[in-house]
Amino acid sequence: MFQQLKEDIRSVFDRDPAARNTFEVLTNYPGLHALLFHRMSHALWGWGLKWLARTLSTIARWLTGVEIHPGARIGRRFFIDHGMGVVIGETAEIGNDVTLYHGVTLGGTTWNKGKRHPTLEDGVVVGAGAKILGPFVVGKDARIGSNAVVTKAVPAGATVVGIPGRIVRQRASDDESVEAQRQAMADKIGFDAYGVTSELPDPVAHAIKSLLDHMTAVDHKIDGMCKAMADLGSDYCDERLPALKPEDFEAVKEQSDDSKPAQ
Length: 263
Description:
UDP N-Acetylglucosamine Acyltransferase, domain 1, six-stranded mixed sheet, five-stranded parallel sheet, 7 helices, 39% helix
């Protein structure tokens, strides 16, 4: 028991640079308080004292702003940063070294009994305000961006953003080490638990850019073919293509500018 408490306190120091000493962590971290309350209420739940377990979890919600159903299973070194507004459902399962930021919901999408909440494997990080809804697995070391709404399984090592959640980054190969994957991800896009940064790739924009790159390459090939045909005396390429009018793209540009985060 005391070893687990020491691990829980150590996880705060490992993941929050604002933590200064053990006394401060024990007295001023509602995420840790909620976890300790849950350890007790989950034990009561396992002993069949359901009402007492629910009552203790309700008291914990009043005191911490974190609602964890006593039936939820939580692993070691779990950390809730800030805590307010976090909701964890009855059949949720959380592995080791998982981090949740404030406003996260691990919820269900059905009123049927049985498994209806998500499973988070080891090392998952869920950004502020994210909603993970349904009885599926979020793979090891996955990252869920702030305010994302995830309703289907997430592969190990993937980064998911948006509504609905879309994978914007996935580890390249199974033989890469976890640290190498994390560093590559950080170098490429970073991971902001509080908001989507301007560097974070948008999957729709990425797809459009890929199409534009392909069209540019096709244009270059056509230009080369037309020059070769002109050298042979053909006038087939003399006909001009319809011009693209800038005003046709103004609405799209304005919408894109409005959607950019403030700097």
